[in-house]
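Dear U.,

For the methods section draft, I wanted the exact inputs and outputs in one place so we can describe them consistently. I've listed the two proteins in the order they'll appear in the manuscript figures. Please don't edit the token lines directly; just add comments below if something needs changing.

First protein:
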Amino acid sequence: MKSKILTFILTKGLIIGGLFMLIITVIILNNGIVKKRITEENNVVSAKVLETPMDCDNLGRRGGFYKLQYNGQVFIKKGNRLICETIYGKKEVNVLTNAQMDKLIFLNEYEESNDFLYGILLGLFGLVITYKGWIK
């Protein structure tokens, strides 16, 4: 009896986990599409730099956070060491925005983005997990 309950929970857990991964995949791919569209529109604007990391050399693997102000809105962006070195000490920085001017990306952010690769890999992994749970 315990074995059937455990198997049921395990298979439903695999299916739910795989579907959750597929939802995250859609979000990641959408993020990549938005960055690509903003890059293609090429609306370069100047944003005020409110805050940068204290030291570009000690950002770590995940990078740092940057606070920018544009069009009356404050944007908190994540970036790597290259971005830090580009904007550190500046009062304004050129960024790209969409037509609604409610999203900002750094000038070279899309070229460095691996959203499509990571999204597809996560999606494939989610499909495999969902399939494994389904056939059990």
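Second protein (the one for the lower panel):
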Amino acid sequence: MRRIEVTGEGITVTVVTEALVSVFGKEMRPGSTSVYALPWDEISAVSLSRTDLGSDGDRGVDLTVNLTYGEFVEVHEDAEGFADAVRQLCRLSGIPDPDPAALPRDEEPIWPGPRD
């Protein structure tokens, strides 16, 4: 399970991994929770992109958070809080919410970064 949240401090992405249990009921690997708190001063840009998943018309939308030190975090549209995070980021940028069906295949910036 993934969750994304936009706060006054930045963007928080939480990843929860369920425990791996054998068919005999023995726990093979414990579950874990990782929280990535990304402060605004470390975020250089946030963008949306669409991926076409095949000829049957399926598509996926991903949000990419680019960090100032070259790393990035991707969050797929099925993450909890995804639509709300996109709305909040667009509101912070002063742009209208994008139509996922009309997104280009390239990245569409929705948060340009902190303003000086």
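Candidate sentences for the figure legend, describing the second protein: The CA atoms of residues 24 and 30 lie 15 Å apart. DSSP finds one helix and nine strands in the chain.

Thanks,
Y.
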